[in-house]
Amino acid sequence: MNETKELVQKIIEGIQEKKGKDIVVADLSGIDDTICNYFVIGQGNSPSQVLAIVDSVREYVRNTTGQKAYGIDGVRNAQWVALDYGDVIVHIFLPDERHFYNLEHLWADAKLTEVPDID
User: Fold this and answer.
1) Residue 1 pLDDT exceeds 70
2) What gap in Å lies between CA 97 and CA 81, rounded to an integer?
3) Measuring CA to CA, which residue among 77, 80, 61, 81 is closest to residue 69?
C-alpha cells in the first residue's frame, strides 16, 4: 500500500506542477467492489491546461516512479480526462464538467482529502 500512496503523492505533484486546482483524493479502499483504491480529482481552467496537467502527470509519474498509465481517455475533448494507474484513477476536469459529474458526491462513502492549492 505504501507504493500506492507514493503514486498518489506523485500524481498530486504532477497536477500541481501545471497549477491544477481543487485537488481531492478519494480513498475508496474501505468500500467493497470498487474499481480502484483511490481517485485523484483535479481541474484546469481550459482544455489546454487540462491537457498540460495530464501530460505533466504522465511525465512526472513515469520519471519519479517508473510507472506508466494503463490507459488514458478523454484527451480529444479535454473536458474530463481520466488516467488509469490500476489502483489509482486520476480525473482532470474543466470546472463545469467537474460540477456536473460531482464525483466527490458520487463517492460520498469515501474518505475525502482536500489538497491545498499552491500558488
Assistant:
1) no
2) 11
3) 61
